């Protein structure tokens, strides 16, 4: 069989094998000491910049300017052979990305072909595994010298199933836990098991400022936002504006939520096949969005920042390539910050994992070159993700090296979670020499010793108003659209919002805030509470006050 699929050598000088994960990450993680003057993450993103800029004087248009094309499969009995949608990734060497995907589509009409030149990635998807294997084999034959890696398109899940510590409760969502609606474990629990306080805290009475006057839930429950804003001091300096946009790559956003609707500035996009809307059916993206820019009964870190939804989850899992595609699309759309409250573990040695790791690294590099800050959660398994060998052992992978992705990769600001006592939260991954922490709560200091659940140690978040309330939120008397959560998914968006506020403040002062500068400002001005918190707990007020021309 002969394919009429042509190859375009965009840059004949592009000989770099950009395996940033294997060649850079292991060195960074294992051998780079952390200090206030040593920024391994920054230096490696600079290296990414150098790798791309090495091609800058060739006089050839770089591949990142090429538009992607998606060709949907035709329908028919032969389209569904396995009953399960499957996909494979083909990663081309830099400067060797092919074009004219329509010719490939003509040869195999049952295969969905998506080209993503910025990542050098070609995705083949369909319901017929033999068809996928046939196309992959033919592409390997034709483009053997141009292909860098071929591998699976692994699933990335919104639920980690961390530890199911609460019997009868539902662990729901990437890096967060929500009490199960109607749980008999809650209804029948003795009063001491729910040692929460319904009344407002006496030290959080509203100061009369117009912004916080209406935010009565924030006044009562918003300890985590207050910590990041240094007791609301940053709100008097910078609250953001709609010209600074944070992309929420997640499950969508409840666009009708009263705390969020005014800050959703773009229509967004879905990357889930068969789903055209960005409606949030599981709640995770709405939770993240509110942490960034709620402005109503709750307040986010940046109550006037713009939000844009890039939907990659609909019912709990996604292909990893959808996340890569969402990152690149968000960059094309000129967002300023990308939040990734999601993650997975991949092997640095397993051949089938290399394709997606390279795709992630190139998407992150593309964002970096365009001046977009990428922030991701560290994960909720309580693991040391700073040592690939130990992480692999923790996962039960013998003779392997493991990495958490995308949080944990070079070029990403990776965020761990702290509790109300300024300690590393028990569930949070940790260990990277270049990471930062943000408050994201836990069950309280007496949960493990006495079994007492203290709601004041958890975080109150926005939640889709159309989804059922948990029994716990009803018990406390919360209106629809708010739930108690914990997890690194709540930590990452606080740092994303802080980065966006620095961008807004920099623009007002005529200062260009590059990803390197933003990371440095956040890290240098974080509050140091001790070990395993990376650079410390993010303090956006201090960072804003230290922006100088």
UniProtKB/TrEMBL annotation:
PANTHER family: CEREVISIN-RELATED, PEPTIDASE S8. GO terms for biological process: proteolysis. Keywords: Hydrolase, Protease, Serine protease. InterPro entries: Peptidase_S8/S53_dom (IPR000209), Peptidase_S8/S53_dom_sf (IPR036852), Peptidase_S8_Asp-AS (IPR023827), Peptidase_S8_His-AS (IPR022398), Peptidase_S8_Ser-AS (IPR023828), Peptidase_S8_subtilisin-like (IPR050131), Peptidase_S8_subtilisin-rel (IPR015500). The active site is at residues 250, 284, 489. Residues 242-530 form the Peptidase S8/S53 domain. Belongs to the peptidase S8 family. It comes from the Bacteria. GO terms for molecular function: serine-type endopeptidase activity. This is S8 family serine peptidase. It holds the Pfam family Peptidase_S8.
């Amino acid at each position: 069989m002969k394919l009429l699929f042509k190859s375009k050598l965009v840059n004949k000088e592009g000989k770099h094998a950009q395996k940033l994960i294997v060649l850079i990450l292991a060195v960074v993680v294992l051998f780079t000491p952390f200090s206030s003057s040593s920024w391994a993450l920054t230096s490696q993103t600079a290296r990414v910049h150098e790798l791309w800029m090495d091609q800058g004087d060739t006089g050839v248009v770089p591949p990142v300017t090429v538009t992607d094309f998606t060709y949907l499969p035709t329908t028919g009995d032969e389209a569904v052979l396995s009953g399960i949608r499957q996909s494979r990734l083909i990663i081309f060497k830099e400067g060797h990305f092919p074009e004219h995907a329509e010719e490939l589509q003509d040869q195999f009409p049952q295969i969905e072909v998506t080209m993503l030149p910025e990542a050098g990635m070609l995705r083949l998807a369909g319901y017929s595994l033999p068809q996928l294997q046939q196309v992959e084999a033919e592409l390997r034959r034709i483009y053997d010298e141009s292909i860098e890696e071929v591998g699976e398109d692994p699933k990335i899940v919104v639920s980690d199933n961390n530890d199911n510590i609460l019997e009868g409760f539902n662990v729901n969502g990437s890096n967060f836990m929500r009490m199960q609606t109607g749980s008999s474990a809650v209804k029948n629990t003795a009063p001491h098991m729910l040692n929460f306080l319904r009344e407002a805290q006496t030290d959080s009475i509203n100061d009369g400022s117009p912004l916080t006057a209406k935010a009565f839930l924030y006044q009562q429950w918003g300890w985590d936002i207050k910590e990041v804003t240094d007791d609301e001091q940053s709100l008097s300096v910078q609250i953001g504006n709609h010209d600074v946009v944070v992309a929420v790559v997640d499950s969508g956003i409840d666009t009708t939520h009263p705390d969020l609707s005014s800050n959703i500035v773009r229509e967004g996009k879905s990357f889930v096949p068969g789903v055209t809307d960005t409606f949030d059916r599981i709640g995770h993206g709405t939770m993240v969005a509110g942490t960034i820019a709620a402005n109503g009964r709750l307040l986010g870190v940046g109550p006037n920042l713009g939000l844009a939804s890039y939907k990659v989850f609909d019912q709990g899992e996604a292909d990893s390539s959808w996340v890569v595609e969402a990152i690149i699309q968000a960059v094309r759309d000129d967002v300023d910050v990308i939040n990734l409250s999601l993650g997975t573990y991949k092997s640095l040695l397993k051949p089938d994992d290399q394709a997606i790791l390279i795709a992630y690294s190139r998407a992150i590099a593309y964002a970096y070159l365009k001046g977009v800050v990428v922030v991701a959660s560290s994960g909720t398994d309580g693991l040391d993700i700073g040592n690939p060998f130990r992480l692999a052992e923790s996962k039960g992978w013998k003779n392997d090296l493991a990495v958490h992705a995308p949080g944990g990769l070079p070029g990403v600001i990776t965020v761990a979670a702290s509790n109300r006592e300024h300690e590393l939260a028990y569930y949070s991954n940790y260990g990277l020499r270049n990471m930062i922490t943000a408050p994201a709560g836990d069950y309280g200091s007496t949960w493990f010793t006495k079994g007492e659940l203290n709601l004041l140690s958890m975080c109150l978040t926005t939640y889709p108003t159309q989804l059922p309330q948990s029994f716990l939120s009803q018990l406390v008397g919360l209106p629809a659209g708010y739930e108690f959560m914990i997890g690194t998914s709540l930590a990452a968006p606080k740092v994303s919002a802080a980065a966006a506020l620095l961008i807004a403040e920099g623009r007002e002062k005529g200062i260009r805030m590059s990803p390197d500068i933003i990371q440095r400002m956040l890290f240098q001005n974080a509050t140091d509470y001790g070990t395993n918190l990376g650079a410390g707990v993010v303090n956006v007020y201090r960072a804003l006050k230290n922006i100088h021309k």
